[in-house]
Specification:
little secondary structure, 0% helix, 0% strand
Length: 133
């Protein structure tokens, strides 16, 4: 068996021609898609303390005494009161309620970015020389 690099000898039908097939390397560059990293979108609850000042009010009893002078007659003064008088006092109390409300929409998307990469490779080729003796 002959190598493809071996010159072909002419047969009787050929003239005096000898031929050699010259070869050279060609560079074929392509790209392959490989996974580089995994990205996960997660929601995490972060707690932070908030301090808010709230005004609250309450009722207090104020006792006012006025002397009765002269012949001033007051309504209901003829009958002495023997039952206690009850006054209900009120106060505001702070009530805290938490609600969850939507505040922002976050979207995760991908986009392709293309960069130029220079490829340098050494290629070989055959040359044909004729040497005479």
């Amino acid at each position: 068996m002959t190598s493809p690099h071996t010159p072909r000898r002419p047969s009787a039908a050929d003239d005096d021609d000898i031929e050699v097939v010259r070869h050279e390397e060609r560079l074929a560059v392509r790209t392959e898609l490989h996974a580089t990293e995994r990205v996960r979108l997660e929601r995490v609850v972060v707690s932070e303390q908030r301090t808010i000042s709230v005004d609250v009010s309450h009722e207090e009893v104020r006792l006012t005494r006025e002397p009765i002078t002269g012949g001033t007659r007051l309504p209901g003064a003829e009958v002495p009161v023997r039952e206690p008088i009850v006054v209900v006092l009120h106060e505001e109390q702070v009530t805290v309620t938490k609600t969850v409300v939507p505040v922002e929409r976050v979207t995760l998307s991908t986009h392709r970015v293309t960069d130029d990469h220079v490829v340098t490779e050494t290629l070989g080729h055959e040359e044909v020389d004729v040497t005479t003796e």
